[in-house]
Each structure stands twice: as C-alpha cells, then as structure tokens.
Amino acid sequence: MIRNSKLSGVLHVLLHMAELDGPATSEMLAKAMCTNPVVVRRTLGGLRDAGYVRSEKGHGGGWCIARPLTEITLLDIYRALGAPPLFAMGNRTESPGCAVEQAVNAALDESFREAEALLLTRLGEVTLAALSEDFHARVAGRHQTWDLEKAHG
C-alpha cells in the first residue's frame, strides 16, 4: 500500500523552522525531509499562498513561519496541501450491479465517512504549538540540545 507522508513531512519541517532564529533555506529543509529542494519549494509554496509561511529571496533569505504556532492547526496545513485523501483503502467497484458489493460498499462508505470526520476534527484541535511543546519535552527528556544541521546532517 502506498502511503502519502506529505503532511507528516511538512509538519516536520515547520517545527524545524519554528526553532530557527532566521529563515531556513530550501536546501536545509530538503535535508530534513530527505528530498530535493525543488520539492520543498513546491510544497511550501502552497503554504505560502495560504499565509502560513513566507519566503524571502536573496542572500540570507529562505522560509519563515508567517503566523504564531498557536494559530495554525494540523487541519490548516492539511488543507493547504490540497486535502489529499486520508485513507488508502477504498471500495471494490468491479461489479456495481452485485447486491453483495453494494451492501459491502454501503457499510464501508459509512465507516470511511465517520473515520474521516473524526480525523479531521482531531487535526483541527492540534496546533503547531502543541507539536512544538511535545518536541521540547522530548528533547529535554533526552538532556540534549537541538540543532537542525546535527539532527539531519
């Protein structure tokens, strides 16, 4: 099953960005996402259009978070990414006239709708600030300091 980890990856770099005193370059963030800087620019471009990050060009430029972490939810970021499908599972559609397939699909449709509604509600309740607090607690528990270059060097 193919998994879409785009939301997780973007949240990862947003938390790294929140720890920096200045802009983060696409190259720095690409290391954290284990991807190409072009992918970072394309992905963060959607977040910039939604007002969650901003970019600065030129020497000393890069990406910065544009709003307080308390004002950005995981649902906001999910939507800024284009609201990709939440589940890889789907209904069988090979025999649409089959009553068994119809009964199975009806039951699954209801379950999928309920699960999606629950997940979207939960994403709307969690802010980047809450993720940042969890991150800081984990770092403190390990008696470590944080450094983007060392974390993904």
From TrEMBL:
Pfam families: Rrf2 (PF02082). GO terms for molecular function: DNA-binding transcription factor activity. One of its GO terms (cellular component) is cytosol. This is Putative HTH-type transcriptional regulator YwnA. It comes from Methyloligella halotolerans.
